[in-house]
């Protein structure tokens, strides 16, 4: 059995998925988790069934708190973050992964409420994951730092977002293209953020040199799907506007 987004799964891997399911039955919510989700947690822990079970059980407890009632974060809970128009939905890359775009210069640490920000992270991960088509398991992110400065620097928020992604949305990020990166951000990343990123996630962050930006983007994304502001033909939709389109919850 194979999956275009997550790679081929052999009989041994599906056997471990079955073992993982048996281990997490202590939580009744685990019955609602499908096999592909179990496989992502398994892969995130190097196919160690015990570690994957601990990770999944932690996720189920967290999800119940982050989005009570089995739903997702409501728009009114993150309205302040949505109004900043810093997250956009794009097209798809050449492998069919949906694209999410972040404009980091629109985020200001002085205006950030951490509780709302964490809910916002859950909100936009749910939205982008809901766009992932059958046969694919990952999304592509473009993080644009053009205009980013000290007022935008928010290490606590960056670490919080990364930890939510790697702990509760494992194996969902296919690649994050970091573009227009100023030197000071790179220093902050290497010294204050990188140590908090797990080994499975680190290589997914690709810092694109300005000279190779056009070539890199065209290699990853067809012109018809590339955002207009990056020289393509795809208009972006702000998450605030996209929010008007109900989406299923991503697990």
Quick structural overview:
The chain is of the alpha/beta class and 251 residues long. The chain is built from ten helices and six strands. A six-stranded mixed sheet has the order 5-4-3-2-1-6.
Which strand order spans the largest sheet, edge to edge or round the barrel?
Answer: 5-4-3-2-1-6
Number of domains: 2
Counted by DSSP, the helix tally is 10
Number of strands: 6
The main pleated sheet reads as:
6 strands, mixed
Mean residue pLDDT:
93
Superfamily (CATH H level) name of the largest domain: CRAL-TRIO lipid binding domain
Low-confidence stretches: 247-251
Order of helices and strands: HHHHEEHEHEHHEHEH
* Rg from Cα: 18 Å
Tell me the strand percentage band. Answer: 5-15%
Question: Any idea what the CATH architecture of the largest domain is?
Answer: 3-Layer(aba) Sandwich
**What structural class results from the helix and strand content?**
alpha/beta
Q: Can you tell me the CATH topology of the largest domain?
A: Phosphatidylinositol Transfer Protein Sec14p
Helix content: 40-55%
The CATH first-level class of the largest domain comes to Alpha Beta
Shape: globular
Pfam families: CRAL_TRIO
Organism: Zea mays
Domain CRAL-TRIO: 75-238
Protein name: CRAL-TRIO domain-containing protein YKL091C
How are the secondary structure elements laid out?
Layout: H1 11-23, H2 35-44, H3 49-66, H4 79-82, E1 87-92, E2 98-103, H5 114-130, E3 139-144, H6 155-168, E4 173-179, H7 183-193, H8 199-202, E5 205-207, H9 213-220, E6 237-238, H10 239-242
């Amino acid at each position: 059995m194979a999956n275009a987004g997550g790679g081929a799964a052999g009989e041994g891997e599906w056997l471990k998925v079955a073992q993982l399911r048996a281990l997490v039955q202590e939580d009744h919510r685990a019955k609602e988790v499908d096999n592909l989700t179990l496989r992502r947690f398994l892969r995130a822990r190097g196919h160690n069934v015990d570690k994957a079970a601990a990770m999944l059980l932690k996720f189920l407890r967290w999800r119940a708190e982050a989005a009570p009632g089995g739903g997702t974060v409501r728009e009114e809970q993150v309205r302040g973050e949505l109004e900043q128009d810093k997250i956009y939905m794009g097209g798809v890359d050449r492998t069919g992964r949906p694209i999410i775009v972040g404009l980091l210069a629109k985020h200001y640490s002085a205006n950030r409420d951490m509780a709302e920000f964490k809910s916002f992270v859950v909100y936009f991960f749910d939205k982008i994951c809901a766009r992932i088509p059958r046969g694919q398991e990952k999304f592509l992110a473009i993080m644009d730092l053009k205009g980013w400065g000290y007022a935008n620097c928010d290490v606590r928020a960056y670490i919080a977002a990364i930890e939510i992604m790697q702990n509760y949305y494992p194996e969902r990020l296919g690649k994050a293209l970091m573009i227009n990166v100023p030197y000071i951000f790179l220093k902050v990343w290497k010294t204050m953020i990188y140590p908090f990123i797990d080994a499975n996630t680190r290589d997914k962050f690709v810092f694109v040199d300005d000279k190779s930006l056009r070539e890199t983007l065209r290699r990853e994304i067809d012109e018809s799907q590339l955002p207009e502001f990056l020289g393509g033909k795809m208009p972006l939709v702000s998450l605030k506007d996209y929010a008007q389109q109900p989406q299923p919850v991503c697990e």
